[in-house]
Every structure is written in C-alpha cells, then in structure tokens.
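> call design_seq(struct)
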C-alpha cells in the first residue's frame, strides 16, 4: 500500500506484531544480525499468524511501488524479490511506530544524525577541493562514550537503509568502520525527534519522485527519449553491475550476506548509461550473463527472474574489473586471442594439418602498425571536453589515452597490452553520457584502431 507520509498511518495489530518479532530477534542476536524471512515466517505462523507474507505485503510504503525506484517503508523487504534467505531489517520508521525498537535503533540513530549534521556544518571548506567529511567508529565512541559498542558497530548499516543517507563506508574484521558523511544529512538538520525525521524522510522521497516525474513529463507531455545505442547499453549494464559488485566486496564484511543486485540502481554513478537509467529487467539479464560466464556467483533465481537476485563477484570477475576495466566482452574474448602454433622443423614445402584434397595459401602476419591507434588517441584527446564536462573524468580519460599511446609506440608493441588498454578506454567512454553522438564517434575510432590486433 502506497501512502504519502508513514507518520499519518495507524498500523494494525498483526503488522505491529510482525515488526516487533523482527526487531526483538535482531536485538537478541549476539552479532546484531537481522533474521531471515524463513525464520520470521515460521515464527509468525507458530504464534497464530495465518498469512505472514500477506501481513508483510500490507505494510505501507512511501514512493515507488514494486522493486524499482526510490521508496521507504517500515522494513527493507521488497515483496517481489523476497526469498527464504532474505534478511529483513527494520528502518527508523519502524522505531517511530514501535516503542520497543527505539532504545536500540531510533534514539541512537537520531543522536548520530544530529552529530553528523554538526560535523558537516563545522567542516573546514577549501575553494580548491570538494568537501569531504568522515566519521569513524572510534571518533563516534569518543563523542558518545556511553553508547554501547554493539550499537556503534551497526551505525553504517542503519544509515544505508534510510532515504538519501546511504554513502560509502568500509568495515574492518574487528567491527570498526569508516564512513563518509553525505551532504544530504543537511536535509534533516531540523529533524528534532523521530516523528520529525520520519516525516521529513517521506517528504524527501516524494520530492525526488516528483522531480523525476516533472522531468519526464515536461509541459504535460513525455520528454523526448534520447537516441540509445542498445548494444552499448546492454554491455554497459553488465559492466556497471560487475563493477558495483566489486566495490561491494571491498566494503563489506565477509559475514554479511550477498548483496542484492538491484541495489546497483541506487548508485547514480553506475546506474546510468547514455543518459538513460538501467531498468530492473536489464540488471536481471546482466546478472544472468555474469553468472553464466563465471564472473559472479549467485544464491539462486527468485520468482520469474532470469538471473540471481543475490550475488557476489568471483575471482574471475575481480580479474575482469581490475585488469580489463570491467569490459566483459574483452575479458571473455581473451581466451580466443592466442595464436595457434605449429612447431615445424626441416621443411621446405607447404604444410597442411589433418587435411586432404586442399588448396593451401601461406599467410604471414605483418608487423603491428600503430598509426590507426595513434590517430584514435589524438581524436579522443580532442573530443574529451565534449565527452564530459567533469574535469576529473576528462583527466582520467586522457591518462588512459596517454597510456595507450605509450603502449602503441614502444619498439616492439605488445598486442595484448595495447588491446587491453584500448578496451579500457572504450569502457570509460561508454560511461560518459554527456553526448551520445560524440561517444559513438570516439568508440568507432578506437574499434577501427584495434582491428589489426
């Protein structure tokens, strides 16, 4: 059920009982793990709840309906992709509705939020650098010496479930963590209590969706859709998902369950290609493709999905990201690029392997001519400002192009190295959606340049 503000709804007895069951189990768990749906469903039925799944589905949410798009509710559960091993966590909204969840979730969250607002407001600014404010578990413990270590350990997870407050963080095996404080905390600077926070969170979700709707339907008409290169878009969806899973592995504790592949859609840096945001179906197909080629390992397919909803990157996937810039096609083709070699001695005539009744022509590979690669590199250097207006993105691209020029002009160029760097350049260009036409021109130049490799 979709509503405008969660603070305006009155939850029923069974809805509150289900939330209490989830929260009580998490509070009793030594590691603070949220329970799996399999346990919740069984437990609820044992207490006389006939249809726990129906009760879960009936919990109100603000925002997008279904599994795609920004939304906020009392739990993290998305019904369509709910599996037996899905861990269900309560949000801060549940702590507002449920008195017993306030001491471990709602009240500590609000205290930390206010602390973050204070840190962001007082952070030093520089005219030459983007402001970055960092919070660590150690500094938080110093600020709140009486806050239990168990609660401090879970702070990044709590914030990752709240609207516009999810940001990058890293955890160590001992439970310590470092977290970037997003500027969006200032949206909540006037949230003095749980009621004000939850109401503001709902307001922010609605505002984001209204803005997206107004952009899509400007002047009452759907906005014209940009010309999309479908082949590049499919390739980019696979690269985006694999890259996102690589980042998740670097950040997450090994004990944390596999990430949900659809969460990549909330990462604005990876979820958009050629000005178009990936759809759930595209990410689903990308997930299937990655698992089929051994780049990810999934936890099984849910409902009508083509690929796994929960997955993690494999060593092969890490190799693809780290050495092939996440270019899936280049990584798969690498196995086919090696030459077939016949070792022949003392022969002065033509040789045919395992053949009869044939006509044979001897073909030798000519030396590598870097002219086309260098021409493509020069073109991309000229096109860089049109590919992206971001100075950091331009510099990153130009650095890759410089590496390509160096690799192509060595006395004896290594074809494999040149191809790998060129594939990396193409992967970077695919991620720059400022001008699709210029993007296509740059990609075609590189592709023509590596045809002789």
């Amino acid at each position: 059920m979709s509503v405008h503000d969660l603070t305006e709804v009155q939850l029923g007895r069974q809805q509150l009982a289900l939330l209490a069951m989830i929260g009580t189990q998490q509070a009793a768990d030594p590691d603070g793990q949220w329970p799996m749906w399999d346990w919740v469903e069984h437990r609820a039925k044992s207490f006389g709840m006939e249809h726990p799944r129906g009760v879960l589905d009936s919990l109100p949410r603000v925002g997008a309906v279904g599994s795609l798009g920004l939304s906020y509710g009392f739990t993290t559960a998305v019904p369509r992709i709910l599996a037996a091993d899905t861990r269900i966590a309560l949000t801060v909204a549940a702590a507002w509705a449920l008195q017993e969840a306030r001491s471990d979730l709602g009240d500590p969250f609000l205290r930390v939020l206010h602390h973050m607002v204070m840190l962001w407001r007082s952070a030093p600014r520089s005219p030459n650098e983007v402001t970055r404010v960092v919070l660590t578990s150690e500094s938080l413990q110093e600020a709140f010496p009486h806050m239990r270590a168990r609660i401090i350990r879970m702070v990044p997870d709590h914030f990752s479930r709240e609207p516009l407050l999810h940001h990058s963080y890293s955890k160590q095996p001992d439970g310590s963590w470092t977290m970037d404080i997003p500027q969006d905390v200032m949206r909540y600077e006037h949230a003095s209590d749980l009621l004000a926070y939850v109401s503001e969170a709902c307001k922010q979700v609605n505002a984001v969706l209204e803005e997206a709707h107004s952009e899509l339907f400007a002047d009452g008409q759907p906005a014209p859709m940009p010309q999309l290169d479908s082949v590049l878009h499919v390739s980019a969806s696979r690269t985006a998902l694999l890259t996102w899973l690589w980042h998740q592995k670097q950040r997450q504790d090994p004990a944390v369950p596999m990430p949900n592949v659809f969460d990549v859609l909330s990462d604005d840096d990876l979820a958009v290609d050629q000005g178009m945001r990936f759809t759930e179906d595209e990410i689903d197909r990308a997930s299937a493709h990655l698992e089929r080629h051994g780049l990810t390992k999934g936890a099984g397919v849910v409902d009508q999905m083509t690929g796994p909803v929960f997955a993690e990157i494999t060593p092969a996937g890490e190799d693809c990201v780290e050495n092939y810039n996440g270019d899936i096609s280049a990584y798969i083709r690498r196995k086919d690029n090696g030459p077939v070699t016949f070792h022949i001695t003392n022969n002065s005539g033509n040789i045919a392997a395992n053949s009869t009744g044939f006509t044979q022509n001897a073909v030798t590979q000519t030396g590598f001519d870097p002219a086309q690669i260098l021409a493509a590199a020069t073109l991309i250097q000229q096109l860089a400002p049109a590919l992206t207006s971001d100075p950091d993105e331009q510099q990153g691209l130009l650095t890759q192009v410089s590496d390509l020029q160096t690799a192509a002009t060595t006395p004896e160029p290594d074809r494999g190295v040149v191809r790998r760097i060129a594939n990396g350049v193409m992967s970077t260009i695919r991620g720059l959606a400022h001008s699709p036409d210029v993007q296509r021109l740059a990609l075609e130049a590189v592709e023509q340049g590596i045809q002789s490799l």
